[in-house]
Structures are given as C-alpha cells and as structure tokens.
Specification:
Radius of gyration: 12 Å
Structural class: alpha+beta
Strand order of the largest sheet: 3-2-5
Strand content: 15-25%
Largest sheet: 3 strands, antiparallel
Helix content: 25-40%
Number of helices: 3
Number of domains: 1
Shape: globular
Length: about 100
C-alpha cells in the first residue's frame, strides 16, 4: 500500500481518488456539516486557518488520521470501511480493505 500526502492545495476529489486507490476504502470530507464539493481545495473547506501537510500510511489508525486532519489542516474527515459505513476508529487503514 502506498503512502500518500494531503495539503491545502489538493482538490477534495483528487484526494478522495488517491485515498481510495491507496487503501481500498472511501473517505468523507466535510465543508461544515455537508460533504465538501469535489472541485474545492482542502484549504477552502477547513474550519480553522491551518497550513501543513499530512503523510498517510497504511499503519495509521482511522481515528488518528481523522484527528491529524483536524489538528494539522483544520479539515473534518471520516474514514469509511469497505461497506461504505463509518470505520471503527481503532482499526488501521490496511485492515479496512480486507
């Protein structure tokens, strides 16, 4: 499984495709309480003005990834499981696609 990165310049749709290709599951990205538009940049949907980049790998726990997105980019995300439901926060990204 590949390591991918996320930063404010990346488009929501591009990141979702990269995430799905790398980990086999979806990720929900929010703009407030609604899903973010795929054409929006991650920076445009953040709730707090934060700059940075996140390196994501298969060993990360879903909950830690969600927390890291909020802390470092100010973006609310939720990882899905292979059924499209919200993933358990205590499982690794690698285990989600099995």
């Amino acid at each position: 499984m590949a390591q991918i990165t996320a930063n404010g310049r990346k488009k929501v749709g591009t990141f979702k495709k990269e995430f799905k290709a790398a980990y086999g599951v979806g990720i929900r990205i929010y703009n407030g309480v609604k899903f973010a538009d795929d054409d929006a940049s991650l920076a445009s949907v953040r709730t707090e003005k934060k700059e940075g980049e996140i390196a994501i790998n298969a060993k990360m726990l879903a909950g830690n990834l969600e927390k890291k997105f909020m802390e470092q980019l100010g973006v609310k995300v939720q990882v899905e499981n292979k059924d499209g439901e919200l993933a358990d926060n205590s499982v690794t990204l690698a285990s989600l696609c099995k």
